[in-house]
Amino acid sequence: MRITSAVEILENPKKFPSDRKNYKLIKLENGLKALLIKKQGNCKDIEHNDTISYVALCIDVGSFEDPFEVQGLCHFLEHMVFMGSEKFPKENEFDQYIKSRNGFDNAMTECEFTIFYFKVDTEHLHGALERFANFFISPLMSLESMFREMEAVESEFQNNVNNDVHRVNQLFASMVRDTHPASYFTWGNHKTLKTDIALKDLYFIVHEFRKRFYKSNRMNLCIQTSLGLEAQQRMKNVLRQVKNEEAKNVYDIYPAND
Ligand SMILES: [Zn+2]
Q1: What is the DSSP letter of 151?
Q2: Structural domain range at position 83
Q3: Does a structural domain hold residue 255?
Q4: CA of 223 to the centre of ligand 1 (A)
Q5: Domain assignment present for 222
Q6: Of the listed 65, 69, 78, 208, which one is catalytic?
Q7: For 65, which DSSP code?
Q8: How many whole angstroms from 45 Cα to the centroid of ligand 1?
Q9: Where are the alpha helices (DSSP H) in the chain?
Q10: What is the pLDDT of residues 103-149, one digit of tens each?
Q11: How far apart are the first and last CA of the chain?
C-alpha cells in the first residue's frame, strides 16, 4: 500500500490474463474507494468503446436500514438526491445532462446496498461526474421536491403492483416476523411516505438518514474511461468533496430495528 498526497493506492484486483484493461484501486482521504479502469490500446471490447465512459457508485446502505415506521425511506432517498444540489439546483438536471450527451442513468435500492450508475460521452465525463458528485456533497431535497417525488415513488409502486416477482417477494416478506427488516415493504408508496407520516417528520428523517448513511466511507465508485491521468486527478478533486457528516440518530424518532 502506498500513500501519495493523501490518496492511498490499494492492491489491484486480480484479473484474468486475457483481460487487457488496466485497473487502479485508490482510497481518498474521505474514505471513498474508487476503481479506475482504463483500456489498453489494442483492447477489443464489443460492448464498450472509447467514446463512452461508464460510472457506478455503490453505497453501503439499503432498505434494511429503513425505520420500521417509514418503510420505503431508503428508496425515497435514492430518488431525492436527483432533485437538485446547491451547485446544480435544477431538479433532474443530471438526468437531462446525461440523456442529451448520448448517455443513460439509473439507480436501484436493494436490501443492503444502493447503486447509482450512468454512461456518457467521454468528453462530458467530468461535467457529468461533477453533477453526480453533488448528489452526495450538497443535495437540496427541498419540501417541494419531496412532494413531487412521493408521486414518482407511488407511480412506480402502481406500475409494479401487478408484477408477479414483486408480489412473490412481498409474500415472502409477510412470512417474516414484523420486527425483522426482511418483513418490510421496501418500495414505499403514498401510505408509508405520505399518509402515515407528517411531511415535516419525513423531511427531517430523510435528511438525517442521508447524513448518517450516504457517507463517503460507505461509497465504492467504479469508473471506466479512456481518459488519462490528468482527467483522473480532476475526478479525484470532485470526489474528495463528499463528506462524512455528523447526523442525528433517525431512530431517536423511531426506534432502531431489533
Ligand atoms: Zn425508484
Answers
A1: H
A2: 2-243
A3: no
A4: 23
A5: yes
A6: 78
A7: G
A8: 31
A9: 73-80, 93-99, 125-137, 143-160, 164-174, 190, 199-213, 229-239
A10: 999 999 999 999 999 999 999 999 999 999 999 999 999 999 999 99
A11: 38
How many whole angstroms from 73 Cα to the centroid of ligand 1?
11
Using alpha carbons, select from 94, 71, 197 the residue that is nearest to residue 140. 94
Q: Which residues contact 110 (CB under 8 A, 6 or more apart)?
A: 62, 63
Examine residue 251 and state whether it is found in any structural domain, yes or no.
no
Q: How many domains does the chain have?
A: 1
Q: Which residue type does 210 have? A: R
pLDDT for the residue numbered 58: 97
Q: What is the pLDDT of residues 142-185, one digit of tens each?
A: 999 999 999 999 999 999 999 999 999 999 999 999 889 999 99
What CATH number did the domain enclosing 145 receive?
Answer: 3.30.830.10
Residue 64 in domain:
yes
What is the 83 CA–ligand 1 centroid distance (Å)? 13
Is 8 among the residues known to form the active site?
Answer: no
Strand partners, 85: 139
Task: Calculate the alpha carbon distances from 244 to 30, 57, 167, 197 in Å.
Answer: 7, 16, 37, 28
Angle subtended at Cα 103 by Cα 100 and Cα 104, rounded to the nearest 5 degrees: 115
